[in-house]
Every structure is written in C-alpha cells, then in structure tokens.
Amino acid sequence: MNARRLGLLAGLVLSSNAWAEGISGEVNRQPLNIEAIIMFILFVGATLYITYWASKRTRSRQDYYTAGGQITGLQNGMAIAGDFMSAASFLGISALVYGSGYDGLIYSIGFLIGWPIILFLIAERLRNLGKYTFADVASYRLKQKPIRTLSACGSLVVVALYLIAQMVGAGKLIQLLFGLNYHVAVVLVGILMVLYVLFGGMLATTWVQIIKAVLLLAGATFMALMVLKSVDFDFNKLFTEAVAIHPKGVAIMSPGGLVSDPISALSLGLALMFGTAGLPHILMRFFTVNNAKEARKSVFYATGFIGYFYILTFIIGFGAIVLVSSNPAFKDAHGILLGGNNMAAVHLANAVGGSFFLGFISAVAFATILAVVAGLTLAGASAVSHDLYASVIKDGKATERNELRVSKITVIILGIVAIALGILFEKQNIAFMVGLAFSIAASCNFPIIILSMYWSKLTTRGAMVGGWLGLVTAVVLMILGPTIWVQILGHAKPIYPYEYPALFSMIVAFVGTWFFSITDHSLSGQQERERFYPQFVRSQTGIGISQSSKH
C-alpha cells in the first residue's frame, strides 16, 4: 500500500474522534488492498451471521432494548470498551506520544481516570432504577413527560452529531478500500447499520462491539509486542533509543508543552470525562446486565481493558519513534514523516507486519465505526419509541408490540437520515461534531442524571430549565467559536474564543438547575423532593423498585 493511501487511511480513521482533523475534499480511487478487502468481507459476514443468530433470540421489548438483561459483566465490559476504544484514539494517542513523548500518556490517562470515577457513581443506581433508557432514571421522581422529552431531545442531538462524523468517515474508508463511489459507500454502511439493529437489536449490537474490541486489542497487542521484541523487551533501551532519535531529545520524557490554551483544554477534558457518562449509547449498556453487581463488574472490566489499551498505545508511540522515524522509507525528501504524526501507528503497522497486517488494521478501522453507529442507532431508536412514543405520546399505555414497531420504523428512518447526512456533509469539516456531541452530553444529560440520583432538592422545573440551558448554551457557544464561526462561516474573529464550550455550558446547566429548583415552592416541587428519600434507599439496595411505583 503506497504512502498516499496510508495517509488517506489515517486521516479517515482519525476523523471520528476529538483528535481528528476534519474530512474534506475528494478521496481519489486507489488500487485495491486485497488483504484489507478479504478481512473486511470476513468481518461483515461474521457479524451478519451473528445478527441472524440474535434475531432468533430477540422476541420481546426487553430482548430488543437490553438483550434480555442476560449479558454478563465481562461481556458488557468488553462491549463498553469496544464503544470507548476507537481506531481514532489508537492512532491519535500514538501520534501524541510520537510527537510529544510523555505528554501523550498524560493525555490518555486523564480520560481513563474520569471513567471509573464517573461511572462508579452512576452504574449501580442506573441499573437499579432504570429499565431501558437513562430517561427512566431521570424521570423516576420527576414529571414523566417533560423530563423524558428533554432526555430524548438531548439523546437525539448527540446521536445525530455522532452519526454524521461516523458516516462520513466510514463512507470514505470504504471508498478508499474498494474504489467505490462515495455515495455508494455511505449507502452500504447505512444498510449494514440498519440490518444489525433492525433484526438483531441489542444482542447483535453487543457482539459486534465485542468482536471489534477484541480485534483492536489484538492488533495493538501485536504491535506492542513487536516493538518490545525489537528492543529485547527492555523498556530502558526503548526510551534511551527514542530520546537519541527524537528531535526534542530528553524533553520527550518530561511533561508540558501540549496545552497552549488552558481553557480549551479544560473544556475538552470536561466534555470527554463527563460527556462519557451522558452518552445514551454508553448508558444503555448498563441495562443489558441483570443486576447491580454485574453493572459494577462491567465498569471494572471496561476500565481494565481501556487502561491496557492506553498502555499499548504508549508503547506503540515510542516504538514508532524508534522504528518509523529512523526509517527513510516512511519520510519525504525533506525528512518529514509521510502523512504527518498521525501516520506514526499506521507506518509502524506496515513496518512490523507488512501489507497483511496493514489490511488487518484497515478492517479494524471499519469495525470500529460500524460498532459505534450500531450502538448510536439503537440508542436513538429507543429514545423515540420508549421515551417519546410510549411514555409521552401514549402516556405509558402503548402495547409492547406497538412500541417495538415504532422502534424498528425509527431504525429505518435513522438509517435513511444517516445516509442523507453522510452525503450532505461529504466535503465539510465534521471533526468538531464529536466534541460538540460530548459537550451536549456533559451539559444536558449528565447534570440531570447525577442530580436526580444524588440531590434531594431537585425538581422538574429546575431539571427542565437547567437541562435546556445546558443544551442551548453548548450549541450556541460552539457556533460562535473558532471552528464554526471562523473556519466554516468565514468570519474574521470568533465571538466565543475557545474551541469547546463544556466548561461554561456545564456551569450554566448546574447553576440553572440548582437555582430554579431551590426557588420552586410549588406543591409538585415539594412532592418531588419528598420522593427522593425512598428512591435513594431503593437505589442503594435495589429492593422495592418497580415501574408501577412511578407516577
């Protein structure tokens, strides 16, 4: 595979995460990578078989939304890790380590630390209080219709933004590997996404995510082992050689230098940390296990897999310094790495495994995107069918059959919308959408979830005002910021000077929720405060919780 195709591959995969450079312009048709195509076909064939198998076991609403609650803690932890670990973070963190050394490790560990802190706060209570979606928890002691409407809107906005980024990246990746027209590629991805969710539901989605996680961990483990083998499994030798080769010398072993704008860095960090605990497709995963103990195990296993993954990316980054930067085959005439630092892990894959392993990494990149879009689609469909249709429109009186029918219709509609948005945004810079999705999840979904679980004075009025303020503030600040206001709309200077809005939109959400709750002296507000205490006991023990106890 030539350097041009390698560069395109890295750029495409990186587009699906916050470390992305935007996808823009045309991708020229390339000579086919036979190994990549074979592995791609094998993956699609295996996952379609899993979908067929899952469809035979998906008979009820509970089966469709939560795989019947029969997923084990280990399986769910691996599936969560499959949602969280991406080929983008694989290449992005490796690139940070390659370019900045120790700073790259700090960057990745910062995200990892947020994972157990946040999810250990909510996993058990989420499982005890909820049934299908996180809105079940948020509306437990508050008014059903307004809270579910807010939760569903927040979920759908996050899903839409995430889907755009994934569809554009997936479409161009398939265009690259197969030489297909971009529009045909997007339609192909959309059809596969709909098939997984429409027929297999959560069970098929879970196993697609597990397979993807196994493939990514296997690929990263192989690369790390080959790097360590080249230095006789001596970390001191690896670091010594990296320091000797890297232009920054010993500075790569010291922290500092990555953060030029502390406010934007803090804002992005808050979005990624707290946004993770507000992503609807991540939260849905805790309803697939049958009790709170398995939910805790899910977090434990997911944290272990994710932590191991980040250790691998650290080794891979330093390995790229030693094996890639010293190899003139991966540099241009000026001695600059072909495709930039984001190419480091891709060049390393080629160096340690040749074109066959490079084809494997290509298939993993596609598996990553497909696993994410399947989870997003199911989360969006459940928000529409369970929260809006069954709970708001039908006021809890919808039959299971009708709710499932609405959910499947929504899956088809979401598939069509995702294809249309993928085509519409083909030439746009879409990297900012992932950051905005995390910011909205952190500013709208997370505050309502955490306060409904822990704060006794929360009322419907406070939750509604704070949640909508957080959502609107995040969107408006992103529009007025450098990415959209300057780069896309063409203005000279941004009105909001920072890249990401989470720092300010989260403050607005929490302050708005607090203020409008404590000033709510209505009878309904008082009743909602009183409901907290029995709810709190139930959430600790899991005893006495039933859907009939909801008003």
TrEMBL record:
The chain crosses the membrane at residues 36-55, 76-98, 104-123, 149-168, 180-198, 210-228, 263-287, 299-324, 356-385, 406-425, 431-455, 467-488, 500-519. One of its GO terms (biological process) is plasma membrane acetate transport. GO terms for molecular function: acetate transmembrane transporter activity; glycolate transmembrane transporter activity; symporter activity. Keywords: Cell inner membrane, Cell membrane, Ion transport, Membrane, Signal, Sodium, Sodium transport, Symport, Transmembrane, Transmembrane helix, Transport. CDD domains: SLC5sbd_u4. One of its GO terms (cellular component) is plasma membrane. It is found in: Cell inner membrane. Residues 1-20 form the signal peptide. InterPro entries: Cation/Ac_symporter_ActP (IPR014083), Na/Glc_symporter_sf (IPR038377), Na/solute_symporter (IPR001734), Na/solute_symporter_CS (IPR018212), Sodium:Solute_Symporter (IPR050277). Transports acetate. Belongs to the sodium:solute symporter (SSF) (TC 2.A.21) family. This is Cation/acetate symporter ActP. It comes from Rouxiella aceris.
